[in-house]
Amino acid sequence: xxxxxxxxxxxxxxxxxxxxxxxxxxxxxxxxxxxxxxxxxxxxxxxxxxxxxxxxxxxxxxxxxxxxxxxxxxxxxxxxxxxxxxxxxxxxxxxxxxxxxxxxxxxxxxxxxxxxxxxxxxxxxxxxxxxxxxxxxxxxxxxxxxxxxxxxxxxxxxxxxxxxxxxxxxxxxxxxxxxxxxxxxxxxxxxxxxxxxxxxxxxxxxxxxxxxxxxxxxxxxxxxxxxxxxxxxxxxxx
Length: 238
Fold this sequence. Notes:
It is a single chain. This protein is of the alpha+beta class and 238 residues long. The chain folds into 2 domains: 5-154, Jelly Rolls (Sandwich), CATH 2.60.120.10; 157-230, Arc Repressor Mutant, subunit A. Helix content is 45%, strand content 23%. Strands 1-2-9-4-7 form a 5-stranded antiparallel beta sheet. Strand 5 (67-73) and strand 6 (79-86) form a beta hairpin. Helix 1 (11-19) packs across helix 2 (29-38) and helix 6 crosses helix 7.
């Protein structure tokens, strides 16, 4: 994949980007100014790689616009999308805090812009602003909890349970009557093959639980899907 290119938004724009981020809300002007002046912009085309899993990490990223997917490679070579970063979200901080390699890859899911913060400047801001340190610890703890829940699902839930659980989660998060996602993306989100996802959706479609078509899914029988999501053993596991 091509490397990200430089985005042409000025220091004052980067200041506004950081000021709008919840993580940085209420920080002193001196700290925000230092972060903004040290940052640089990057523009990303859909599918562009920001960083790779296991590479050294010395930068933190803030999404200005667009969407970035955090992806891990499974032991059998498949890619699993574990998180989605949207405008105002911060990512990449874990490697800076621990000094360890990146635990995921980051890829733009659509045309996007990010502000890139040098690790030493980010760490200096943590030392200068105790409230920022507490917020980062809170974000890290919540992400660790989500990671533990995801690993539990992958370890103990069969394929239909994992797929049903994720569809119900998307249905809860969306504000419309349908879910917009491709079968390939679904497979990446729940660590299944595309063939398994297509087969399972086909069975549920014929059972009248949902309707599929052109990258959209409409859930019709949420009770049946909920029951399937709670049936964590046996069946078509992968």
